[in-house]
Amino acid sequence: MKKAVHFGAGNIGRGFIGEILSKNGFEIYFVDTNKAIIDELNTRHSYEIGIASSSPEKIFVSGLFGINNGENPEDVIEAIAQADIVTTAIGPNILPYIAELVAKGIQKRKEENKQVQIDIIACENMIGGSEFLEKKVAEYLSDSDKVYLANYIGFPNAAVDRIVPGQKHEDLLYVEVEPFCEWVIDESQIKNKSFKLEGVHYANNLEPFIERKLFSVNSGHATVAYSSAYKGYKTILEGLQHKEILSALKGVQKETRALLLAKWPQYFTEEDLMSYHQMIISRFANPKIIDEVTRVARTPIRKLGYDERFIRPIRELNERGLSYQNHLDIVGKIFAYQDENDSQSVQLQEKLSTMDLQRLIEEVTGLSNKKIILEIELVIKKYKNDSK
After folding, report:
1. 229: annotated binding-site residue?
2. Do the annotations mark residue 332 as ligand-binding?
3. What pTM does this model have?
4. Is 201 annotated to bind ligand?
5. Is 12 marked as a binding-site residue?
6. What is the pLDDT of residues 293-318, one digit of tens each?
7. Boundaries of each Mannitol dehydrogenase C-terminal domain copy (predicted)?
8. Which of 203, 229, 251 is the last residue of a domain?
9. Domain encompassing residue 7
């Protein structure tokens, strides 16, 4: 049986990547520091996924093991050495923390003279996630290790899309997910061509698909979340019942379509994107998915990053002379967002009260374009004044 090592035994890891790997006949070794989940996986070796739809169904996933990388790092290294594929779903900020373990797994494969090629795929909400992980892994490799990596280890980028809301169940491993899912892998970067995963789309140029997903789903979800928080709604579903919030989402989508059509006319048509965006609205409005605003809106500083879901579209729309006012408006709401249980929200509000505003914008967004910085300053002041 083929073996998969998957970093991240959380809801997305179990409710999406684990399901696909299991359906493809893999024995899965989940790697995580959550002792309760890892122990439960090793007790049961299986779990159930619930599909939240008008016709609910259950999916049984089996052939599972857990490894606590905090307690048993050597077991992780050995698992990577024996694996046929390695995947992650841990969050972009956590990728650097697994890099050394991944590097040691690669070194062990080299020591054992394994000449079977393997791919390590970061399934994260970021552009170039696998390439980013590869750079972090390379920091722990010698020159001869890097030669081995170049020959035998692939880091193909991927785009993943499935809404998995925050949830708690009596069954620690049970997870509910939306029916829709999409996993796209850059075929041109794959090293191991001996198999393809069923249920995964392979593309020769992943970038347009990653941008379509990031700028449509992630930007759209965040648009609803921050707009809902500003209006005092607690869930995404509640917020979408408000005409002004739905209008904000459609406004961001319209600007996103303009950008994607300008950048990738050979991949998308306006009709395709209109249909895609309408489907996203229906996914967000799924009455069986109760998604907390605080979950979608968490880590506001990260979401304001230079290559993230709002600042990058703003930069690229500006370069092309296209409108980005709806994106800009959400940036103002992100700066106004307050959640005392979110450390980044607390940190951002502290900085707003103590730092020069333009310097703060530059620090958080990485922007140097004075025109855009001034526009962001104005929209921040607008929402600060509105909240008084």
Report:
1. no
2. no
3. 0.84
4. no
5. yes
6. 999 999 999 999 999 999 999 999 99
7. 205-351
8. 203
9. 3-203
